[in-house]
Amino acid sequence: MTFALVWVLGILAAPAAGAAQEETLRVGSKRFTESYVLAEIMAQQAQAAGVKTQVRQGLGNTAIVYEALRSGQIDVYAEYSGTIALEIAKHAQGSDVAALNQALAHEGLAVGVPLGFNDGYALAMRRAQAEELGIRTLSDLARHPSLRFGLSNEFIGRGDGWPGLAKRYSLQAKPQGLDHGLAYEAVTQKHIDVMDIYTTDAKIDHLGLLVLEDDQAYFPRYDALLLYRQELPTQKPVAWAALQKLQGRISEEAMIGMNAQAELNGQSFAEIAKQFLAGGAPQAVADTSGDAKAGGQPSFGARLWSRLVAPDLWRLTAQHLALVLISVGVAALIAVPAGILLFPHARSRALALGAAGVLQTIPSLALLAVLIAWFGVIGRLPALVALTAYSILPILSNTCAGLAEVSPGLRSAGSALGMTRPQRMRWVELPIAMPTVIAGIRTACAIGIGTATIAAFIGAGGLGERIVTGLALNDSALMMAGALPAAALALLSELVFELWERYLRRRRVRR
């Protein structure tokens, strides 16, 4: 039944995907500030030429966004030459455009339109601490093995990241994996000493960090350019012509300014892109070190309220509810009949519950990554399958538990009245077991509402989009603006199920 469900969902998704491919330029982004901004710039540049666009923000790390491009889920996204050469096309004979195109040709992909700036990897630490310890270069770090490294999880696993860097500079530290946005908070609070940064990050100077010199030239250049599907210029020539006008337009200073507008001034990515394309220079960064009265910045409560009631609230809430209701509904259609069929067979029932329990123990992000590789798509399909898998165990186990509550005497009475087994199940056993079954569906909904926030990491939408973006910007107000509505949905779900159970109890008493 699960495989049939997956097949049906895939068939239903295919026409919509095909229509979008014909009519819309689909722009993707990774899950950090600069990628969000560049995606909006590309989309608005195409829109100005009359092209309909779809922006799929915050899809995840390089592997996920690259898989989305390779499988045709998006048409283009902003990538970096060093990342393509060392992480994507590992056999590339250089990081220039010609070498990268030669290495990517067999994948049906191409690179082009250099945007005009280099955004490289580097390590940074608090300036005061670095001066106290006499650290200026990466080679100096080897003399201080007690320093605490907090590095992004992607950097720790990249081919051009920590493993090669540690080997080149003989670094013995065991880094702690952190989200890139949270690492800035960790280093300023002195929870870590060294972090990886992008050289166009806005918070480097703002937080008083020192970028350590790569004295052995480990890191290559990371020139920003467009990574796209080879057929984009021929299939969507108007969009491609518009994107080519971005070549060389973004300087490193402009990119740092736009990142600052998002991370320090709290401007939306769309507004930043609009200002840039209109020819406006990035505005001066406001001082966020003071409180609302001293620095002129809004309080946390004001920022939370403005983000909470933003226009995307109802759209994200509807997407979140759709993910939960569809997945729990499908899980109920699978688990309740399965529980009825398996209940008389103790061994088969135990095996099924064990298998469902194993699914429940798989970390959600790991399961999503496996499903992306399996289906070759990102977005709602793998998210729905994962949420359905997590919802099966509570419904299946409660269905079996509810049927076990039916006394043998009642079963015998039904048989004595001439009922067949299906009739007895319908009129005697299921009505008695129904409150327990509903409790299982109630639990599945609670699990689904919480887990559905993770779906935003693969572009499936929902209230998790705010949490993911808040992580990228280290914006606690934005994260809370996603978490609070999700919590409200969970409370509303509990209220609905409580009222439903009371109704069933009153109806049962009347009967």
Automatic annotation (TrEMBL):
Signal as a keyword of this entry, yes or no, is: yes
Q: Which InterPro entries match?
A: ABC_Gly_betaine_transp_sub-bd, ABC_transp_perm/SBD, MetI-like, MetI-like_sf, PBP2_ProX-like
Mind listing the UniProt keywords for this protein, alphabetically?
A: Membrane, Signal, Transmembrane, Transmembrane helix, Transport
List localization entries.
Cell membrane
Q: Where is the ABC transmembrane type-1 domain?
A: 317-497
Q: Where does the protein principally reside? A: membrane
Q: Which SUPFAM superfamilies match?
A: MetI-like, Periplasmic binding protein-like II
A GO biological process this protein is involved in? glycine betaine transport
Q: Which organism is it from?
A: Comamonas piscis
Q: What is this protein called?
A: ABC transporter permease subunit
> Membrane spanning segments where?
321-343, 350-377, 383-406, 427-458, 478-500
Q: Pfam families, from UniProt?
A: BPD_transp_1, OpuAC
Q: Name one GO molecular function term.
A: transmembrane transporter activity
UniProt family annotation: Belongs to the binding-protein-dependent transport system permease family.
GO CC, sorted alphabetically, is: ATP-binding cassette (ABC) transporter complex
Q: Which residues form the signal peptide?
A: 1-19
Q: How does it sit in the membrane?
A: Multi-pass membrane protein
